[in-house]
Amino acid sequence: MTFSDPLRLKLAYSTLLKVCLCQVFAMFCVMMYVLVPDMDARLGGVGASRWEKRLLKEDIPVMWINETARLVDRGPCVCDKGSIPFPKAMTTEEKEEVKKRRKKELEKFRARVSRMSDPLLLVRGSCPLSYPSMGLQVVPGEAIGIPELSIEDNVFRELYKVEFSSEFGVLDIAAEVPEVDVSERRTNSLAIESSSLIHLNRQLDFLVYVNTQPELGRLDLVKFRYFDHDVTIPIRINFRPVPRLYDPGPDNSIDRKVTILTKTFLRYPSVRNLIRSIRKFYPTIRIVIADDSRPVQNLQGDNVDHYVMPFGVGWFAGRNLAVSQVKTPYMLWMDDDFLFTPETKLEKLVDVLENADIDIVSGLVGRARMSMYKLNILEGDEEGDCFVQTTGTYGTLKDFPECHRVDRVINFFLGRTDKVREVGFDPAFSRYAHTEFFYEGLGKLRAAACSFVRINHDQTSNDQYVKFREPGRAYLKFLVNYQYFRYNVKCWNKDE
Fold this sequence. Notes:
With 496 residues, the chain is an alpha+beta fold. It is 30% helix and 29% strand. Strands 15, 16, 17, 18, 19, 20, 23, 24, 25 and 26 form a ten-stranded mixed β-sheet that branches. The protein has a six-stranded mixed β-sheet with strand order 4-14-13-7-11-10, covered by helices on one side. The chain has a three-stranded antiparallel β-sheet with strand order 2-3-6.
């Protein structure tokens, strides 16, 4: 063995050790490359790099822009010194009782409104944007924050940039985030960019939309763009619904909930019999009568309001007058030759309106079977659309198996006063009409027909009444021409 052999052996060993260390280091790098993304996913953050995800965006400090922030969060309104204090006339005890009743009615009102409003829907991590897709509403001239905006992107970029644009408002931010540049504030085209995605996402938490054009009822479609990804955020422009509450009083009496309405014409014996039958079961409930007869007989009495109209002005004109005088949350409509019986339980109809998602509920008339109809308007051609009436229902009401969802009910129904007024009655229909009201209420009224309440029909007539009640050829011609133009329809298909 020569002197150089141990040296060569030592060099070989040293080289082998270096190679092994390099291989171990390489394996370590590979493992870190694989494991760090998984670790980042568990941390739940997003960022420009995998290491940046360790920082939570909520930990990033911000600087509030008070001018804009106050637009979004104004807090409860404050009564000025010169304002009119509504509760001033009440004692403290009266005020507390009224507030309890008002709170209960307000909760019911808001529940009804929320069922008819668009819910807030969020799209998360889609292509790769998260944003609200429905349910945002702004009061004209006011501001809202756009919630749940973020970018999910695992690609490292030197610069991350988003752009927003709107038509009926401007865009702003309520707070500034470090390492983020925001340009074109308070315009309808705003851009946000940063070299850090987590800082960019933090800035998105403070995006504000300010309405500048009061296009009531319209949607402002806010565009949200990130490189090749483009989505739309709809914002409805409208006022908050004004509560219309009716005080049921401390005794929650049916008299404070229901007003009975009818229209009479040349049938005074019938309407007097109706009043007497009502008083047997509801001695003090208010009755409103619209009357276009001649000569006029006085029907005014205790809790009976008799409104005289021009002679023969008509059926729907009388309905409008009667409905306009209601002061209770519900109104009961019926013909003037109906009669109350022990089966005419108004409390049962009230129970349906107070506990089901329904605006109008009907009972049965005489011995007739339940009348159940579905309505529709089918798209037509240049000649017009088609009215369609078919027999059938949409099923029964939850908790009320004897009630069926329909589009049209008979001429004995209890309705929410405000919803009936919203549709109204076209006075052009003077001789006879009924279904026309429900066609105009499509999409506005939710109706149900129930079998557990019944009223009698004492059908009466006289020569003078028949002379005016039966439509002549001229009126029928007017009627079809009127509906042809008013509703853009060419025919009415009925399934009787």
